[in-house]
Design a protein that fits this description.
Shape: globular
Oligomer: single chain
Strand order of the largest sheet: 1-2
Strand content: under 5%
Largest sheet: 2 strands, antiparallel
Number of domains: 2
Number of helices: 23
Structural class: mainly alpha
Distance between the termini: 59 Å
Number of strands: 4
Radius of gyration: 24 Å
Length: about 525
């Protein structure tokens, strides 16, 4: 029997993924104009259609992949991997590559070409990651993979959007509660209507009703719109313009960690999907990811695409393969017709954010639920770097609003806020979250030699600048790469690795000191403490 292409849950899943992708496209439209000085014709005529190509290709592939898994396993509850534009790369490329180039040269085309170059290299890295991804998954504890994902979910997704929800309670709280009720209790609404769809429609109705009554809770977008067809056009000349120029390669310090971020994030998302019951092969999943990003660059988008976090949330909504197809088609039509801003003339963002909040909290919960109980300590430790990165964003935003820069105000913090520790933890926070969690997993298991290997990895990453290393300049926090980039961290991680190696050999000599004694529940812990 052939699996069905569409089920009721696909409508809910479509709304969640569509809103997520729409938010990224809105950010592109606004930030490219304000920060990078891009003219409207470049954004609507090149960048957004190019982004649509990559989104469509990825969504269609992952929908096909899900159907293949359905046929292989005989199951009809397989959910396609969610896919879209990578938010951290989007912000990094705007503020750390294209924005600075535009501010220096006032040449938006040169800034755009640098973004295309960065996107191309990121896609190549993502594709290369397909050939080492399985090895990383086999040798990395599940807690380490899931905790970094949970850190992003609880901070940049859940906390970031819940503030916006509670800032507009009249049009956002009720839709949020409808989503929590529908998804949390798995209660079917009358006529089988999907909860996300009903919640968004309710929020739209509330916003326009209150507006009609004279309450200014919702201001429709004032961006002008004219119907026109913007088909994607390959831009190889612009894509390779900086291939032999130092202008592009000088930003490798930004491009490399973001490419690595995308590879690791995709592996974490594959692990998340497997924990939810859907096992996808690493190589084709990451290859499709890389091809999507390369296609984006070839057709004019400077923004990498990636497998999204949130697979368990879409699975809990009842989404299968059809939601991915719907998202790809609708996003493509909006971009090709220049209609991204039209949605904002009708739908208030606040009415849709409950779906993203749900995605954030279910991913966080999964990190604790899908690991052995005694590994919860490692998950908790792995959340800390993401919390630091999010806190740094709040601090920088506050300082900027006050008309200052972080470089100016850092001396004033003193011991009231250990800002240097916050910055160090935020640098390479996905990598450090994974490494710290892995170290603690193997310490808990008393597998000290493996813990030492991961601690030595932390030392190496610190010494080359992939974690903890930074320079605070008048332009803000800058990545610092090179030999001995963060020597204190490297030395102390190295010393800790030696201690763990010593414990391993001491255990072998003493006949059991280094052997793991499983502590699987609180009763076992109490018995051992009593002994």
């Amino acid at each position: 029997m052939q699996p069905r292409w569409f089920v009721h849950g696909d409508i809910d899943g479509f709304f969640g993924l569509f809103i997520d992708n729409l938010l990224q496209l809105m950010l592109i439209a606004v930030l490219c104009k304000v920060v990078c000085g891009f003219p409207p014709e470049l954004i609507t005529g090149r960048i957004l259609p190019g982004a649509a190509v990559s989104i469509l290709l990825g969504n269609l592939f992952y929908a096909w992949q899900a159907r293949q898994l359905m046929k292989k396993t005989g199951r009809d509850d397989v959910t396609a991997l969610p896919f879209g534009i990578n938010t951290p790369s989007l912000l990094a490329y705007v503020f750390l590559i294209m924005g600075p180039i535009y501010q220096e040269t006032k040449d938006p085309i040169l800034a755009w070409q640098a973004g295309l170059f960065a996107c191309l290299l990121s896609g190549i890295m993502e594709g290369a990651g397909a050939f080492v991804g399985d090895w990383l998954r086999r040798h990395t504890p599940r807690a380490a993979l899931l905790t970094a994902l949970a850190g992003v979910a609880i901070t940049f997704i859940a906390m970031g959007f819940i503030f916006q929800i509670f800032a507009a309670p009249a049009i956002a709280i009720f839709p949020m509660m409808m989503i929590l009720i529908a998804y949390g209790s798995r209660t079917r609404l009358p006529l089988g209507l999907p909860g996300g769809f009903v919640a968004v429609c309710t929020g739209v109705a509330l916003a326009w009703l209150l507006r009609a009554l004279g309450f200014a809770y919702f201001a429709p977008s004032t961006e002008p719109y004219s119907l026109a067809l913007h088909l994607p056009v390959p831009v190889p000349g612009d894509l390779f313009a900086l291939l032999t120029s130092a202008r592009g390669w000088q930003y490798l310090a930004v491009i490399f960690p973001m490419g690595l971020f995308n590879v690791i994030g995709s592996l974490q998302n594959l692990e998340s999907a497997e924990a939810a019951g859907d096992h996808y092969e690493t190589k084709p999943s990451l290859l499709a990811n890389g091809i999507g990003t390369v296609a984006a660059a070839l057709f004019g988008s400077a923004f990498p695409t990636t497998i999204y976090i949130g697979h368990p949330a879409w699975k809990a909504m009842g989404a299968r393969a059809g939601y991915s197809v719907l998202d790809g088609i609708v996003i493509t039509l909006l971009c090709f017709l220049g209609g991204i801003t039209v949605v904002l003339k009708v739908v208030p963002l606040e009415a849709t954010l409950g779906i993203l909040l749900w995605i954030g909290i279910i991913i966080t919960a999964q990190a604790f639920q899908e690991v052995p109980k005694h590994h919860a300590l490692a998950v908790a430790l792995g959340l800390v770097p993401s919390l630091a990165a999010w806190a740094l964003v709040l601090v920088e935003t506050s300082v900027h609003v006050a008309g200052k820069t972080l470089f100016e105000v850092v001396p004033a913090f003193g011991n009231d806020l250990y800002i240097h520790g916050m910055i160090a933890l935020s640098q390479g926070f996905l990598l450090s979250a994974m490494v710290l969690a892995a170290i603690l997993v193997f310490i808990i298991e008393r597998e000290f030699l493996q813990a030492a290997a991961w601690t030595a990895t932390a030392a190496g990453l610190s010494l080359v600048g992939l974690i903890h290393a930074y320079e605070l300049t008048p332009l803000g926090v800058q990545n610092k790469f090179g030999i001995a980039a963060a020597p204190a961290f490297g030395a102390m991680y190295g010393l800790s690795a030696l201690l763990l190696v010593g414990l391993h050999f001491l255990g072998r000599r003493s006949g059991g000191f280094g052997e793991r004694r499983p502590l699987t529940d609180s009763a076992s812990v109490r018995r051992e403490m009593a002994t």
